[in-house]
Amino acid sequence: MNKMELTYVPTICPYCGVGCGLNLVVKDGRLVGVEPWKRHPVNEGKLCPKGLACDQFVHSADRLKSPLIKKDGKFVEVTWEEALGLVASKLKATRETYGSNSVAFQVSCRISNEEAYLMNKLARVGFKTNNIDNCARLCHGPSVSGLALSFGSGAATNPLADCMNADCIFVIGSNAMESHPLAGRRLIMAKERGATVIVADPRYTMTAKQANIYVRFYPSAIIPLVNSMMYHIIQEDKEDEEFIKTRTKGFPELKTTVAKYADVEDITGVPTDLVKKVALLYAGAKNAAIVYCLGVTESRTGTDNVRTLGNLALLTGNVGRPGVGVNPLRGQNNVQGACDMGAYPSVYSGYQTIDAEENRRKMEEAWNVEGLPSTPGLTLTEHIDAAGDEIKSMFIVGENPMLSFPDITHVGASLQKLDFLVVQDIFLTETAEFADVVLPAACWAEKDGTFTNAERRVQRIRKAVDPPGEARADWEIITDLAHTLGVPGFDFTSTEDVFNDMARITPQYGGITYVRLEKPEGLMWPCPTEEHPGTPILHVGSFSSRDGLGTFFPIDYVPPAELPDEEYPFVLMTGRILFHYHTGTMTRRSPTLNAEVPAGYVEINPDDAAVLGISIQKNDSIRVRVKSRRGEVETVALVTNDIPKGVVSMPFHFKECPANRLTNTARDPLSKMPELKFCAVAVELVPRTGHGKM
Ligand code: SF4
């Protein structure tokens, strides 16, 4: 290929929250490849398999190319004018008949900051509702609520590269090597530099295999495990007295609570000696960092799990300098940004709470509107529960609840109860099939904007190619819909216009401009003024809380909502794998990625497999049925010692065996996070019907 014919467009990977820089390679108006961004500070010229193949779904033949309206049960192509006219009239009629809170908006974390901000503005200005939420609710909602309570800000405290300054890294509930591979690379680099990497996980994951010390604990037992670590730290006088005295509050209550957790082997499965060993390694390190992910958050005690990690960091003074901190690995490319932008039922952009009158007045003035509502809206899964009752119409942008929400049989039944459903997406997803109107959107390679990664790093994405057919950027569709509805304040002609509208009312983004974002490293918020250099490390010298202190929370163990029993004897965990992403909408259309892992499976321990009559034969596909109180799926058994006895695990990317048909809707009372990582299931062999393989 003649290199002269190629154009290289610098942008950001559309997959995980690490936010790697890459160049899209364009020839004759089409993507022909991906090249890592050599000097990008996040990935330093490396990409994982997903990033390297991220161009492959863009020109898929089945991309949505025209607006669709369902007529007599079948989708029919229509003009934008007809589609937006119908959406506007139906949403307006719903609001007029049933009131503002009868409409709900669900926002994907794959869209840009500008687009998430516009959805927040449309819901609040156009419909006077706070019924807007994003899919962080199902991954790091507990990080937002937990870290905000402990430290005053719900975001990661330190940059990923800061692992290189840590002497000890405690990784819990994160399989970074598969879910966030370029963050996993930092862990390996830190270990090679001499840091002790401790990985605590029920599964012996690809990440656990890289650790100096692996701690296998029983799923859900985070609070007793970490409380016991704190017990041993206090017993050995290894807490940071000066830090506790000058920068925190609530220590006496914490000390009383953790005193009950001297020996937790019966709950956690971890011998006391090992708990004590990792506790003292963490507390004894000059700089110790915590890295965690969905193994911590996807629980009905998700917020408490996060606050317990906050307690551990406060106890040892490991907050507010290089090489320390508490760092959630955010799942989707813009999950941090979608929350920052106010696509959230209780806050405007920049976490300005909707129930504070001063904030409502500020937004009313900025948006030139009156009567913004002060009551928090419903969360994502509450939208589903209220469908057909309080919620009559729903507008879903880029979300696929028919695969990603717990108990998808319930989700499908709820979507059918709606009077009107609009889905805006790049493919006809499992959820879009339920819609009355489908709006075709441009994907990330086809538009400008910004993403904010797991480190709070705001970065530019750039348009490389045109969207297919009539598809349009989400921000253009939302803007046009606002015009059709007659909602004022949507006179935008570029994403930069939208960004500026947001930045003027969002203190953390106040000093960020498109011009400043031209440099490869972007800017890390808070960045309140144009002279401010950005803030890589939070809570230096003082916490972001109102009183400047970090707060200890005494937290006791609460067991999961649904424990194994005679009928459903196994615990089901769900998770992600290296070659696929979320509901597989993009990665399963990538030939390279799909060839690596073309189908789902359930991991099962050899001892459990033997009891069930599952033999371990090379190249043998043993089909099993996995059943819970909510449904059943058929899949293939993968027999492995990497999973403990009594536990099975399924990736949730595969529509042919959707793990979320089985999962539990029990919720964390504070963050409303469902218990996606723990439910009781039964596993049984599917009888062979012939002599050959099934
Ligand atoms: Fe993309 Fe994440 Fe892989 Fe980086 S680590 S290339 S952001 S999927």
Structural class: alpha/beta
Task: Tell me the total number of β-strands.
Answer: 28
> What molecules are bound to this protein?
iron/sulfur cluster
Number of alpha- plus pi-helical segments: 22
Main sheet, how many strands, which sense, barrel? 7 strands, mixed
Helix % is: 25-40%
The pLDDT mean sits at 94
What is the overall shape? globular
Give Rg in angstroms: 24 Å
Strand content: 15-25%
Q: Strands of the largest sheet, in order across it?
A: 5-4-18-17-16-6-7
Low-confidence stretches: none
User: Which oligomerization state do the chains in this entry correspond to?
Assistant: single chain
Distance between the termini: 44 Å
Notable characteristics:
alpha/beta; 694 residues; 7-stranded mixed β-sheet
3D structure, described in words:
The protein is α/β, with parallel strands linked by helices. A hairpin with a 2-residue loop joins strand 4 and strand 5 (74-77). The radius of gyration is 24 Å and the shape is globular. The mean pLDDT is 94. Iron/sulfur cluster binds at residues 13, 15-16, 18-20, 43, 47-48, 50-51, 180-182.
